[in-house]
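Table S2 (text version). Query chain:
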Amino acid sequence: MTSIITPQVWSLSSGSKANCTLITTGKTNILIDLGVSCRTANTMLRSIGLELSDIDAVFITHEHSDHIAGLETFFKKYDIPVHMTEPSILAYSRGKGFPYRDRPIPHDTAFSAVVGELNVTSLPVRHDSAACVAYKITGGGISLGICTDVGCPTDELLDFFSDCRDVITECNHDIIMLKLGLYPEELKYRILSDWGHTSNDDCAAFTVKLVGRGVRNVMLAHISPENNTPDLALYTVRKALDAASLSPTSLVCAPRAELLRFV
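Corresponding structure-token output:
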């Protein structure tokens, strides 16, 4: 494994098409989700001195395709642990004649696992999948909370992330853009529900609470290309932070299909 000198968190892809995040201490490497192809993941990882064979474990948030698209090829090529909740495993493998149904390590929706220097803990969150979890990753200089799909950020999620230094959180849509957009009404209702995706306004209110609790770095994730823009997401969150006289160390947006170091 190629050594990385400092702990780092990288977004490989974020949005409705594909999601994947790298967390590395220099000794331990994990991915949160694998919604990109293995070829794409390897291309991105090699640009920072790693590749998929260096990954120690993968943790899946839920079974929607933009979070697991690369898994089947990954199972074919790599003997690396993949952690998923049991409801997501069942939904992922149901009716497919899936040859790798025994490969994922099953968990309850609230679980903890240790991988090398990293401690990974999950929290169930509201999303319209068989199950969906947020993760908190600590150890080896990492202090990260990540939740890329959640219809409604709750106080429980706030408490879960409150001791994190860094947080990646969903900022999916602008409500007006969504309501005036071309999506079918049923899809709009789904996105706007407490089991859909986080709006800019809800993300802004959640970010104010996070920063008020001591979170220093925030990455806005899963930004819709049809119903949002990175500039609008940042503007909405910064406006709320300014009104509360709060200023995180950094506030950035995760690109849809571009490697970006968060911390």
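Notes on Table S2: The two ends are 21 Å apart (CA to CA). The chain has a mean pLDDT of 95.
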